[in-house]
Amino acid sequence: MFVCVCNAVTEKDIGDAVAEGCRSLQELRKQLGVGACCGRCSDCARGVLQDTLQGHASHRSAAMPHLAAA
Ligand code: FES
């Protein structure tokens, strides 16, 4: 699904950016351009970012419990 139509950014693009280290909307904006044009995608992008980060955290806690609190 497209999150940012202006810059053709999908949920997968955000997931890939998180996997590469993005942890904030500002970092997504810098790397992918999310929210840098009309800005209508910012709330949706923030939600996808949070969901993705939580998914990473739960995956990490299951696989590497010593890193879950990090
Ligand atoms: S839809 Fe993302 S900046 Fe316009």
Mean pLDDT metric: 86
Bound molecules: FE2/S2 (inorganic) cluster
Number of domains: 1
The main sheet comes to: 2 strands, antiparallel
Question: Low-confidence segments, ≥5 residues, pLDDT <50?
Answer: none
CATH class: Mainly Alpha
Estimate what percentage of residues fall within beta strands. 5-15%
Q: Structural class of the helix and strand makeup?
A: mainly alpha
Helix content: 55-70%
The H-level CATH homologous superfamily, spelled out, is: BFD-like [2Fe-2S]-binding domain
The CATH architecture term is Orthogonal Bundle
Determine the CATH topology: Arc Repressor Mutant, subunit A
Order of helices and strands: EEHHH
Shape: globular
Number of beta strands = 2
Radius of gyration: 13 Å
